Amino acid sequence: MKRFIVGWLAIVLSAATYAQVAPISQWQCDMMKKNNVLSSGAPVGCERLSKVDFDFINFKGETQQGNMIVLDVVAPSVGQIFSELKLRNFPLHSARLMREFKGDDNASMDANNSSAFNARPITGGGGWSKHAYGVAIDINPVQNPFLAFDSNGRITVKPSQSATRYVNRTRFRARDEIERRGMAEDVVELFAHHGFMIWGGDWNSPIDTQHFEVGSRKFVTQLLDKPLPEAKVLFERYIESYRQCLNKNHSDSKNKGEDAEKARAICAKKTVGTF
Asked: CA separation (Å) from 208 to 101, 122, 204, 223?
């Protein structure tokens, strides 16, 4: 009887954290092209993109379904990330495909939408964004705004509704709203554990707390140039290198809690630099 109960619980827990990964269909490809999410000059074509379907917890505590399109080689890791977010009861406002916003990043941010693939340039810069390679994810833009600075020190906050609420990054505050949830700082280590080791909250200018991405451009190019089986092996080596570094730093640390963030930063920098 005990074995039956344990087995049943395993099935329930597995179902509760279920994420489905599949190559995008021709219809999905056509819709991305039609809605300004994928252009002919994009660095990644439909043949290397996968759709990840997952459940998430919203800010009301309800379960909803979300979707993201990412590079095929990182898709299983993305599924694991969002399954774990649900297990942690980390809330998302929404996770809709960028075709619903016609590829407009500002519209997606204004809607507090978590998103991934979008063949667009770097915000405020030139060249393709990592989103155009399917190796970047933005979560809860309202809770985790993008901050740009001009030469006179003026700050632009996107989305603008975040300016008076979430530029201050303190989670627990002596105010009516004691705890603020959905902030990226709570899950930086989770994203890094599954390969998204670059966090925009580590940057000086711009500061992009909603943004997580995979490795260097050189590394991403290697993932694209290799056949999928070889790309998977390379991506797994990259992740394992980070985890081994993290385990070593944790074992050498005397203050586990205080030094966890430092270890994450050290190992992310080392791994991204190595690959």
From this structure: 20, 12, 9, 24
pLDDT tens-digit readout, 202-211: 999 999 999 9
What is the pTM (predicted TM-score) of this model? 0.91
Q: 267 in helix, strand or coil?
A: helix
Distance CA 152, CA 36 (A): 34
Q: What is the pLDDT of residues 72-81, one digit of tens each?
A: 999 999 999 9
Domain residue limits at 96: 16-274
Instruction: Say how many domains are in the chain.
Output: 1
Asked whether residue 5 is domain-assigned, the answer is: no
Is 69 part of a structural domain of the chain? yes
Q: Residue 147: inside a domain, yes or no?
A: yes
Answer yes or no: are the C-beta atoms of 166 and 143 closer than 8 Å: yes
Cα separation, 31 vs 253, whole angstroms: 50
